[in-house]
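Appendix B, example 12.
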Amino acid sequence: GLGVLCLAMAALGAYRCIECNEEATELYRDYQRGVLRISICKSCQKPVDKYIEYDPVIILINAVLCKAQAYRHILFNTKINIHGKLCIFCLLCEAYVRWLQLQDSSQNTDPDDLIRYAKEWDFYRMFGIASLEQTSFFIGIFITLWWMTPEMLKRKSDFILLLKALLLSTYGKLLLIPAVIWEHDYTPLCLAFIKVFVLISNSQAIRVTLNLNRILPWFAIFFGLILENGVVCLFQKMGWDV
């Protein structure tokens, strides 16, 4: 089972050195009786993935600090399949914060069932708007990267890997949960800080996935934000509160 999977991944060059991003055939060698030896990268002569010995909490802290090594470990050397669930949960958090702000701006406290029904649909509308904004943001990034570096996105698997990396890097939106719990008034500064953190995570995910310099990912994010703000302006012209 596990041995066959490891051999298959090695044959596909699925592993990456977290230091130099070169492909690796194995992460460690098992000498039986609990004796493991981390493989050494043939390119940089450093351990291929030191994080396989680390506690998940340490890995999470390094990911929060946006270390490229931690991102490579998560994206290339582990099999995480929570991208869709994480994305939906983050969008729910964002929609809830927007919904609360919308309710705060409304002075109508009528307990009528029709009013409660309308408020419930306001939440669904906020979720839909947040989903469309994030989709347009990702589309802007993909278009820019495909235009600037078409050789990086030749295969369908490259698009899927980058999409998964972007979805995982939106985990910063989970900070909206303590914002809801601890803050009574949602200050623009708090929400702006979360937004900046998510953008930094997105930039690091693009850089690690495609092995780019620091400038091009931010260039792609800039155009993604332009497209996202275009969608926001469209909603505002339609008379929707976003």
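The CA atoms of residues 10 and 231 lie 43 Å apart. Residues 15-77 form one domain.
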